[in-house]
Amino acid sequence: MVQLTCKYTTSFTYYTLAWYKHAQEKPPLYLTQRREDDSEQRATNLDRHFSTQLKTSDKVITLANASTKLDDSATYYCALFNPQCCMRVLI
Predict the structure, then answer these.
(1) Which of its termini does the chain have fewer beta carbons within 10 Å around, N or C?
(2) 33: β partners
(3) CA separation (Å) from 28 to 1, 11, 40, 76?
(4) Is 41 among the domain residues?
(5) Which domain holds residue 13?
(6) Structurally, how many domains does the chain consist of?
(7) Span 84-91, mean pLDDT?
(8) 89 lies in some domain
(9) Higher local confidence (pLDDT), 5 or 48
(10) Where do the Ig-like domain residues begin and end (predicted)?
(11) Inter-CA distances, 73 with 22, 23, 49, 53, 69, Å
């Protein structure tokens, strides 16, 4: 299992954290997002071997890959944004 951790800070009451995969020579690909209430929205084509966990008390979100494949090789980004607005900040 591979696990990526993203620590964040925010002053927003309502916020969303999203994960993106950026493979070489391809545009970034949206994977999944979680809101501060821990609800999740996943890309329709996201493999089930990816999972996320949000710990608001620690201000940490993790992306886990239970069965890594060669085409999972990429740079992964987490982004924080206020859903009441339009600003996204890569962390």
Answers:
(1) N
(2) 18, 41
(3) 23, 27, 19, 9
(4) yes
(5) 2-84
(6) 1
(7) 62
(8) no
(9) 5
(10) 1-91
(11) 9, 7, 14, 21, 8
* C-alpha radius of gyration, the chain, whole number: 13
Alpha carbon of residue 68 to chain centroid: 17
What is the reported pTM? 0.87
DSSP 19-71: EEEE-TTS--EEEEEEETT--EEE-TT--TTEEEEEETTTTEEEEEESS--GG
Is 52 a member of any domain? yes
One-letter amino acid at 44 equals T
What digits encode the pLDDT tens for the residues 25-58?
Answer: 999 999 999 999 999 999 998 888 899 999 999 9
Mean pLDDT of the chain: 91
Q: List 25's β-bridge partners, or say none.
A: none
Q: What is the pLDDT of residue 57?
A: 95
